[in-house]
Amino acid sequence: MRLVLLGPPGSGKGTQAARLKDYLQVPHISTGDLLRAEVAAGSPLGLQAKEVMARGELVSDDILLGMLEDRFSRDDTKAGFILDGYPRNLVQAAALSELLARLGQKFDFAVQLEVPTELLVERIAGRAQAEGRADDNPESVRKRLQVYTDQTAPVIDFYRQQGELTVVDGVGSLDEVFTRITEALAPAKEVG
Ligand code: ADP
């Protein structure tokens, strides 16, 4: 199964992706986690990305595509993947389509998690206390939500037009949302 999870910051993509990984037996690829690992390692890429991430802006498309190509060169992605945090704009959506075409992999679904903005702000504030992420301060959160509306929301239309979008209500308990996602994916899972 080859999936993209779409949704604003705080919509629960990361949490649901971690569960889906066990359910579908495919790797969870979070571009946010990959970038945070580079920052933590102090690599040249991490040094470049650090400030951009802290401001809540997008790291360059070139860096992201390089990271993704690198990750997709590993064998575990042959069985499929759950992509979380990518694509975040239309350039990235096109780059992903090209990459998959080049690898001869057929894309299955983009799952959009729908959550109202008030709830996002509340959830991120809770996470900020629990995890202390550098980009969970109010200013950066506002910026990330704005970037989502301006740049990532059009990606939803991109997948809708291709007939590859499935929309899931992201309000409810983790279990409820997980069940909704697996129900939405059930037909594709049976096919293979
Ligand atoms: P969230 O969705 O909660 O904002 P992520 O962990 O997905 O968190 O991303 C954190 C930050 O990492 C983003 O604000 C951005 O700076 C950077 N990032 C992650 N994925 C991408 C991407 N596909 N393109 C550009 N920047 C990205």
Q: Quick one: CATH superfamily?
A: P-loop containing nucleotide triphosphate hydrolases
Query: Over all CA atoms, what is the radius of gyration?
Result: 16 Å
Helix content bin: 55-70%
Instruction: Indicate the proportion of strand residues.
Output: 5-15%
Separate helix tally: 8
Under CATH, the topology can be stated as Rossmann fold
Model regions low in confidence, pLDDT < 50 over at least 5 residues: none
CATH class: Alpha Beta
CATH architecture: 3-Layer(aba) Sandwich
Order of helices and strands: EHEHHHEHEHHEH
Give the biggest sheet: 5 strands, parallel
| Distance N to C terminus | 7 Å
C-alpha geometry: globular
Describe the strand arrangement of the main beta sheet, using strand numbers: 2-3-1-4-5
Q: Report mean pLDDT, rounded to a whole number.
A: 93
Structural class: alpha/beta
* Total domain modules: 1
Ligands bound, unique: adenosine-5'-diphosphate
Q: Count all strands and give the number.
A: 5
Subcellular location: Cytoplasm
EC number: 2.7.4.3
Subunit structure: Monomer.
Keywords: ATP-binding, Cytoplasm, Kinase, Nucleotide biosynthesis, Nucleotide-binding, Transferase
Give a structural overview:
By secondary structure, the chain is of the alpha/beta class. The chain has one domain: Rossmann fold. 61% of the residues lie in helices and 12% in strands. It has a five-stranded parallel β-sheet with strand order 2-3-1-4-5, sandwiched between helices. The termini are close together. 30% of the residues are buried. The model has no long low-confidence stretch (mean pLDDT 93). Bound molecules: adenosine-5'-diphosphate. Adenosine-5'-diphosphate (ADP) binds next to helix 2 and helix 3.
